[in-house]
């Protein structure tokens, strides 16, 4: 019996204390959850602020690039306008130069004509007043058109012959070709006989590699009067202008 009492263990039981511990644990757990929630919300808010800042910076960069792009487009448009203006200006200058050259050529022709009118009849009787060179069927063929006129007061029919020669360059060297070398068909000289004027239309075939620069004309009258020598610049557009002209002894 005494041995049974020695094995008896007395334990205390406090239900209120256990409930308090349980409640405290629940409160601590809730506080922990709330702390985690607040920490997550703070982190999310911080991330939202960072995203908003990045978005604002991106929008600012886009606006800056758009403004620079617009400026570059405006500069490009201004450059294109300036280029068109320059091209139009250059074209206008070229047209003006061509007009001036044409006017100068016509003035030379008029001057030569009026000089012929005021020169004594015994000095010059016949001369070339107009000369035109037209391209032919290929690069070596040309049509030579010119007009012979009797200067001064026409007193009757004049007759004679004229010789043509062509100066130029071939293989870097000066060269002169006679009319007989380039005429089609081959003839050494041309005859004339008229009262007021006579027109010529002669076919030419220049050798390969020959670059003409001027045409020399020499007129020989059959009876009386002096001959006349002229030079015309080679020009395949418009009228060829006279470079030289003077009377020669018969």
Overall CATH class of the largest domain: Mainly Beta
C-alpha Rg, in Å?
54 Å
Low-confidence stretches: none
CATH architecture of the largest domain: Sandwich
Question: Which features characterize this protein?
Answer:
250 residues; alpha+beta; Immunoglobulin-like; 4-stranded antiparallel β-sheet; 3 helices
Show the helix and strand layout.
Blueprint: H1 2-6, H2 15-118, E1 126-135, E2 141-150, E3 158-170, E4 173-178, H3 179-182, E5 183-184, E6 190-194, E7 197-205, E8 210-221, E9 227-233, E10 242-248
Antiparallel strand pairs: 1-2, 2-7, 3-4, 3-6, 3-8, 5-7, 8-9, 9-10
Describe the structure.
The protein is of the alpha+beta class and 250 residues long. The chain folds into two domains: 15-118; 123-248, C2 domain (Immunoglobulin-like, Sandwich), CATH 2.60.40.150. 45% of the residues lie in helices and 32% in strands. Strands 3, 4, 6, 8, 9 and 10 form a six-stranded antiparallel sheet that branches. β1 (126-135) and β2 form a beta hairpin. The N and C termini lie far apart (184 Å).
């Amino acid at each position: 019996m005494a041995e049974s009492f020695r094995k008896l263990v007395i334990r205390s039981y406090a239900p209120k204390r256990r409930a308090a511990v349980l409640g405290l644990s629940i409160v601590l757990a809730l506080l922990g959850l709330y702390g985690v929630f607040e920490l997550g919300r703070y982190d999310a808010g911080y991330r939202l602020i960072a995203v908003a800042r990045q978005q604002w910076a991106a929008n600012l960069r886009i606006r800056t690039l758009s403004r620079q792009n617009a400026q570059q487009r405006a500069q490009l448009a201004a450059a294109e306008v300036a280029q068109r203006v320059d091209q139009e200006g250059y074209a206008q200058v070229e047209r003006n130069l061509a007009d001036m050259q044409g006017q100068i050529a016509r003035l030379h022709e008029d001057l030569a004509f009026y000089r012929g009118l005021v020169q004594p009849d015994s000095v010059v009787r016949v001369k070339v007043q107009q000369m035109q060179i037209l391209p032919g069927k290929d690069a070596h063929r040309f049509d030579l058109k010119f007009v012979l006129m009797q200067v001064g007061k026409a007193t009757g029919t004049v007759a004679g012959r004229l010789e043509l020669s062509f100066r130029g360059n071939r293989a870097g060297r000066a060269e002169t070709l006679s009319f007989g070398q380039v005429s089609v068909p081959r003839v050494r000289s041309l005859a004339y006989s008229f009262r007021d004027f006579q027109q010529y239309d002669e076919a030419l075939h220049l050798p390969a590699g020959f670059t003409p620069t001027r045409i020399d004309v020499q007129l020989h009258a059959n009876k009386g009067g002096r001959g006349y020598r002229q030079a015309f610049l080679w020009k395949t557009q418009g009228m060829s202008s006279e470079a030289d002209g003077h009377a020669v002894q018969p």
